[in-house]
Amino acid sequence: MEERAEEIIASIQAENDRLLEKWQTEGYIPMETGVLLYVKTTTGQPVVVSIQDGENDVYHIELLRNNDKFDRIVLDGKYDVPRERLASQIDAMLSILH
Fold first, then answer.
1. pLDDT confidence tier of residue 80, bands split at 50, 70 and 90
2. Is residue 62 exposed (0-12), middle (13-18) or buried (19+ Cβ within 10 Å)?
């Protein structure tokens, strides 16, 4: 599980090694099929980015206000995002959310 999360984070860093710092990343939680990143939007709002593996090197991304199973609010989502656009797609989602 940890290995998969680290591969996804490495993919983000390979595209742009400064984005995790820009997003004020507070930490991550590895999951069986992806990772949860605890970050902030450009306006400073804390959010969770859920990154799930899809098929053929694509990812499903959801921007969440909470990650509580009783109070999970999805703010935005992008699906079938290619690996090479993963970081830029997350950055765009964090930039437009106010």
1. very high
2. buried
**Token code pair at residue 5:** 């999360």
Cα–Cα separations (whole angstroms), residue 55 to 3, 65, 98: 18, 26, 31
Cα–Cα separations (whole angstroms), residue 34 to 42, 43, 85, 96, 98: 23, 26, 16, 23, 26
Helix (H, G, I), strand (E, B) or coil at 61: strand
pLDDT in tens, 32-54: 999 999 999 988 999 999 999 98
- CA distance linking residue 52 with residue 69, whole number of Å: 17
CA distance 42 to 30: 24
